[in-house]
TrEMBL record:
Organism of origin: Zizania palustris (Northern wild rice)
UniProt entry tagged with the keyword Phosphoprotein: no
Single GO MF descriptor: RNA binding
UniProt-recorded name of the protein: DYW domain-containing protein
InterPro entries: DYW_dom, E_motif, PPR_At4g14850-like_plant, PPR_rpt
Keywords (A to Z) from UniProt: Repeat, Transit peptide
The keyword Repeat is assigned to this record: yes
Xref: NCBIfam families: PPR
Domain DYW: 568-660
DNA sequence: TTAGGGTTAG
C-alpha cells in the first residue's frame, strides 16, 4: 500500500536522501536523527559513525534499533559490543545478549578479546544465566585475571558459593595471580556457600588468613568485605578487630561497621560509632547509605531525638530527593511511635513512591494495630498498579494478625496467587500466627501439615507462641519436638515451653527443661528496655542493679502495685520460672526492665510529655497490666514498642485491646 | 575493565 498523498511534510522528508550539497557532518546528523525517530529504514550504506550511533541508542534505551543496526555493521568496535551487552543486561533482555554473543563469536577481531569475555560474563550473570556465563569462561581463549574475577563474581551472585571457592582454588593451582578483587568475590562466595559441609565462618576465616598472607588483609575493599561478612555471620568481635586495624578507613568501611552493629541487635553501638565517625575526620562525610543505616539503628532503640537531628541533616545535605532515604526516615518515625509523621512523609514522596515506601506504610499501620488501614493501603497500592512483593504480603498479613482480622488475612493469603507471589515459609508463619493468636489452633496445625514446603523454625515458632497465649500443651510439645531439632541453641524455645508447663502446673517438666538449659549451657536473652529522656538514651536490664536510681524506681513501682492490689490486682507470677517464694517472685516482677523504664520516664520527664519505651522481647502480661494502671493513675500517655508491635497506653486502656 | 556499605518483614 502506497503512502497517502496527505502525509505530513516532515514525515515524507525523512524518506528523502540527504541533499548532495550537504557536508558529511550534516549528512550524518540527518541520518542519525532519522534513526532515532525510528521512522527511517536502516540506511545503507551505514553512516561512517554507525558505531557511535549504536552506542547512543544503547545509552537511550532504544535497544531494538541498536540491535537492528548491529546486524549490518561491518566493523563493530569493542565499545559498541560493550554498550550493547551492558544495555541488554540493564534491560533484562537475554535475547539481545545472546544475539550480541553470536555476532561476537563470528567476529575475527574480537572473538578472543578477554575484555569482552568479562563483559559477556557480567551480562549473563546480571541476566541470571549462570550456565551461559560459565560457558563463556570455559570457551574464552584468553583467561586474564579480569575474566577469572568476572566468573567469581557471577558465581557468588548466583549463590554458587562452593563453585566460586573451587575456582578460586583453581587460580592458585594454575598460578593465576589472585588480587584484591578475587578476595572480595571469594569472601562473598563464602556467605553464599550455604550448602557447604564447612561452616561459612570457617571459610571466611580461611580466606581472611590467605589474604593476610598475601598482603591484602588491610586493603580497603577486602577489609570492608570482611567486616560485612563477619557482620552477616554475627561475629561482631571479628568485624571490630578488622575495623580497628584498618589504616585508612573511608566512609564505606565506617558504614559497614555501623551496619554490623545495626544488624546484630546493637543499635546503640551503631549510633555511638556514627557519632565517633562524625567527630573523627573532616574528610569522612556520611553519604545516603550511611544515613539509611543510622536511621535504621535509631529506629532500633527508639532514639527519636537523634532521628530528628538526622532529619535536619537530610534537609541540609539535600538527601530529601532520594526515595531510599525518605523510606528509611518514614520507617524511623513510625517505629519511634510517630505514625502520623511517617504518613506525612509518605504523602510527600508522592509519585516517586516505590514498593518499599508502600511496604513501610503497611507495616507501620500493622505494628500500631491499625489492620484495616493497612489493608486499605494495600488495596490502594494495587489499584495504582504497584505490584505487591513478598514483603508486602508479610507486612499486610502481619497487620491482620496484630488486629485479629482472621477472615481478611485468609482472603489476602489466598489472593497471593493472583499477584504471582508464591507463598513462602514466611507467609505460612504469618498465617499460623494469625490463626493461632485468634485461637484457631487446629486450623493452624492443619495449615502446617498441608504445606508444600518444609516448615521452617519460624513456622513452628509461630505455633509455639500461639500455644503460649492459649496454654495448649499438646501442640506446644509438637512444635518443640521440631524446634529443638532445628535450632537446638535457641534458648527462647525452651523458655516458652517451660512457661507453658508452668501455667499448666506441670512443675516436673519445668524442672526438666531448666536442666536441659543448664546442660547445653544456654542462657535466656535478658529483657532490656530503652527510653530517651532529655535527648539521652537510657537502657535498663531486668533486675538492674547498675543504675544508681534503681532503688528509687523500684520503690515507685512498689507504690503503684500496692494501689493496684487495693483494686483487686494479683501479680502474674506465672511468668517467673524460678522455684522461689511468691514474695520473691513479686520482687522479680517489679524489677522487669520495662517497669524500670516507665518509672524512670515518670520521674525524669515533664507531665505533658509522652513516655516512649522500646523493649527487646515481647511485653509480659504483668508489665502490660501495671502499665495500663500507671497510665490512668498518673494521667500519662505511655507508648511501648515490644518485639512484635506497639502498645499505646492511655487512661488505663491499651491500643492492642489486650490482644498481642 | 572489575570490587566494599543501605531501607521495607519475620
Amino acid at each position: 500500500m502506497s503512502a497517502p498523498a496527505t502525509a505530513l511534510p516532515h514525515a515524507s522528508l525523512l524518506h528523502l536522501s540527504p541533499h548532495p550539497a550537504l557536508g558529511p557532518w550534516a549528512r550524518t546528523r540527518l541520518t542519525r536523527s532519522r534513526c532515532l525517530a525510528s521512522l527511517a529504514p536502516v540506511p545503507a550504506p551505514l553512516p561512517a559513525d554507525a558505531n557511535h550511533l549504536v552506542q547512543t541508542l544503547c545509552a537511550s534505551g532504544r535497544l531494538a534499533r541498536a540491535a537492528a543496526l548491529l546486524q549490518g555493521l561491518p566493523a563493530p568496535t569493542q565499545r559498541t559490543y560493550e554498550s550493547l551487552l551492558l544495555a541488554a543486561a540493564r534491560a533484562g533482555d537475554a535475547a539481545l545478549a545472546a544475539s550480541v554473543h553470536r555476532r561476537l563469536e563470528a567476529d575475527p577481531v574480537f572473538r578472543s578479546d578477554p575484555f569482552l569475555s568479562t563483559r559477556l560474563i557480567d551480562a549473563y550473570a546480571l541476566l541470571g544465566s549462570l550456565p551461559a556465563a560459565r560457558q563463556v569462561f570455559d570457551e574464552a581463549p584468553v583467561k586474564s585475571i579480569f575474566v577469572w574475577n568476572a566468573l567469581l563474581k557471577a558465581l557468588a551472585l548466583a549463590d554458587h558459593g562452593e563453585e566460586a571457592l573451587a575456582r578460586l582454588a583453581d587460580m592458585g593451582r594454575l598460578g593465576v595471580p589472585v588480587d584484591s578483587y578475587s578476595y572480595a568475590h571469594g569472601l562473598k562466595a563464602c556467605i553464599a556457600a550455604s550448602a557447604s559441609h564447612v561452616p561459612a565462618s570457617a571459610l571466611v576465616r580461611e580466606i581472611h588468613a590467605h589474604a593476610v598472607c598475601r598482603g591484602y588483609g588491610l586493603h580497603t575493599h577486602v577489609a570492608t568485605t570482611l567486616i560485612d561478612c563477619y557482620a552477616k555471620l554475627g561475629i561482631v568481635s571479628y568485624a571490630e578487630r578488622v575495623f580497628a586495624i584498618m589504616p585508612e578507613r573511608n566512609v564505606v568501611s565506617w558504614t559497614a561497621m555501623i551496619g554490623c552493629y545495626a544488624k546484630n541487635e546493637r543499635p546503640g553501638d551503631a549510633i555511638l560509632l556514627f557519632q565517633e565517625m562524625m567527630a573523627s575526620d573532616a574528610d569522612i562525610v556520611p553519604n545516603s547509605i550511611t544515613i539509611v543505616s543510622i536511621l535504621h539503628a535509631c529506629a532500633g532503640v527508639n532514639a527519636l531525638w537523634q532521628g530528628k537531628v538526622l532529619h535536619a541533616y537530610i534537609l541540609r545535605r539535600g538527601f530529601y530527593s532520594l526515595v531510599s532515604v525518605l523510606n528509611a526516615l518514614m520507617a524511623m518515625y513510625m517505629k519511634c511511635g510517630c505514625l502520623e509523621v511517617g504518613r506525612h512523609i509518605f504523602n510527600w514522596i508522592g509519585h516517586r513512591r516505590d514498593v518499599v515506601s508502600w511496604n513501610t506504610l503497611i507495616s507501620g499501620y500493622g505494628m500500631h494495630g491499625f489492620g484495616h488501614e493497612a489493608i486499605q493501603v494495600f488495596e490502594e497500592m494495587t489499584q495504582v498498579g504497584v505490584s505487591p512483593s513478598i514483603i508486602t504480603f508479610i507486612s499486610v498479613l502481619g497487620a491482620c494478625s496484630h488486629a485479629g482480622l482472621v477472615d481478611e488475612g485468609k482472603r489476602l493469603f489466598e489472593s497471593m496467587v493472583d499477584y504471582n507471589v508464591k507463598p513462602r515459609a514466611e507467609h505460612y508463619a504469618c498465617m499460623v500466627d494469625l490463626l493461632g493468636r485468634a485461637g484457631h489452633l487446629d486450623e493452624a496445625v492443619e495449615l502446617i501439615q498441608g504445606m508444600h514446603i518444609r516448615p521452617t523454625p519460624q513456622v513452628w515458632g509461630s505455633l509455639l507462641g500461639a500455644c503460649r497465649i492459649h496454654c495448649h500443651v499438646e501442640y506446644a510439645e509438637m512444635a518443640c519436638s521440631q524446634l529443638f531439632d532445628l535450632e537446638p541453641r535457641n534458648a527462647g524455645n525452651y523458655v516458652l515451653l517451660a512457661d507453658i508447663y508452668s501455667r499448666a502446673k506441670l512443675h516436673n517438666q519445668v524442672e526438666v527443661l531448666k536442666d536441659l538449659l543448664k546442660e547445653h549451657a544456654l542462657e535466656k536473652l535478658p529483657g532490656c528496655s530503652w527510653i530517651e529522656v532529655k535527648k539521652k538514651l537510657h537502657m535498663f536490664v531486668s533486675v538492674d542493679n547498675k543504675n544508681s536510681q534503681v532503688e528509687e524506681l523500684q520503690a515507685l513501682i512498689g507504690e503503684f502495685v500496692t494501689e493496684m492490689k487495693n483494686d483487686g490486682y494479683v501479680p502474674d507470677t506465672g511468668v517467673v520460672l524460678y522455684d522461689i517464694e511468691e514474695e520473691e517472685k513479686e520482687k522479680i516482677l517489679i524489677g522487669h526492665s520495662e517497669k524500670l523504664a516507665v518509672a524512670f520516664g515518670l520521674i525524669n520527664s515533664g507531665r505533658g510529655e509522652v513516655i516512649r519505651i522500646t523493649k527487646n522481647l515481647r511485653l509480659c502480661e504483668d508489665c502490660h497490666s501495671v502499665t495500663k494502671f500507671i497510665s490512668k493513675f498518673t494521667e500519662r500517655e505511655i507508648i511501648v514498642r515490644d518485639v512484635n508491635r506497639f502498645h499505646h497506653f492511655r487512661d488505663g486502656i491499651c491500643s492492642c485491646g489486650d490482644y498481642w
